[in-house]
Every structure is written in C-alpha cells, then in structure tokens.
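Class prep. Sample record?

___
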Amino acid sequence: MRHIQAYAETRHADLVDEPLFRTFASDPPITRTLQILPSLTFWSLAFQDLMALNLRHMRDPTLRAIAETHHHEDSGHEVWFLHDLRLIHGELPDLPELFDGETLGARDIAYALVSEVYRCESDWERLALPIVLEEGAKIFLPALIAHFDRAGLGQRLKSLGRLHTDTEAEHTLHGDDAASLAAMEAPDFARARAREMTDRVRQVFVRFARRLDHVVTNSSPERERVLARRLAEIVGDGA
C-alpha cells in the first residue's frame, strides 16, 4: 500500500497553496473563520456514513480487519464536531438549516466523496479510500486547528481543537502499524484505480478549500456580531 499512500501524499501536497490556508495562517478574526461551521456540519456527519458504508462492502477478512480498525479510530468524531457546534452557536441546526440552499455546495462536496464508496471494484480500493482521505485531512486539519488554537479555543474545541490533533497522531495509519500497512502489496489493477480515485478526491478537496475560503472572505457582518456576543458568553461562563 506504500505506493498508493505515496501517490496520495504527493497529489495532495500542493493543496497547501490554496488561498484557504493563507487565509487561516493570517489569523483573521474568529468571528469570520467560525462561519465555516455550517459548511462543515453535513460533511462531518456524511463522513461517518462514508466510513461505515465502505466497511460494509468489504469481504476480504484481512483487509476488512484493517479497515475496521481505522473505522473504529474515526468513530465519534462527529460527536466532537456537534460539541463544537453547540459550544459556538449554543444549539444545533435543525433539518431545514442543515439542508438549506446556503449549504448546498458543501453537501455537493460531501456527496462526491461518498460516491467513491460505490466506484470501488475491489477491497483493495476500499482499503485505499480511507488512506487517500487521510492524506487530504492531514493538510486541512492542522491548519484549521492551529488557527483556532492561536485564537485561544484549542482547549475548548474538540473536532477543531487539540484533542483531534492528539488523537490523529495515535491512529494506525500514522502510528506503529503504519509500516505493516505500507508493506502490503496491492495488485496492479487496484493501484491504478486507486490513483484515479486519488485524483478525483484531490479535486473534491480543492473545491472544499475554495468553498471554505469563500465563506470566510465573504463573511456576514451580522453573523460576526452574533458570534462575537456568543464568544463573550463562552468566555464569561468559562465554557
């Protein structure tokens, strides 16, 4: 699998050149950057479906066991995100909000990634899918988490806080078992299809980065005021 992982890492590397990451590195007011949360909500929930459905389609016991471990490691991350959402907004969105026109672009992106489950023709590809997604996440998560940490929210947020960073470091794909996973040899046809998958996923991540950057750079002044009041309450009550 090392060939697949290396290709995914190389293809995702230039995501850091997307404007989103310069935007977050410049540390704009968090009343602007926190406005990405609605766009992240559907993705956070859909990602859990993606991992569960991918696992459900696997039949090879050896490959399934590896995917099952990774699924277990990522389970519950949506609970962290809902914690962050409730902390920042004081409540969770209702269904009309979750499916309104404003977040259609974010849902389109999430559906595109979920569709990869149904494109896979072998368990080797299904094992490659979380690896490919992890390589993209390694670009996104540290940049967003570092920004919110510098803004003083690193200990209070979970999905977008230090807890997520610390937990990711312990995952199988990053830890002691990484060498064993890398040593597994996928057949040539699966490698070729995994490269095609990686190219598609990269394009989705590009769209996602640009979507989030658009939200921040075109932030709503009214929402900035609402978030400012909510942040003052959080600081005041020590949440």
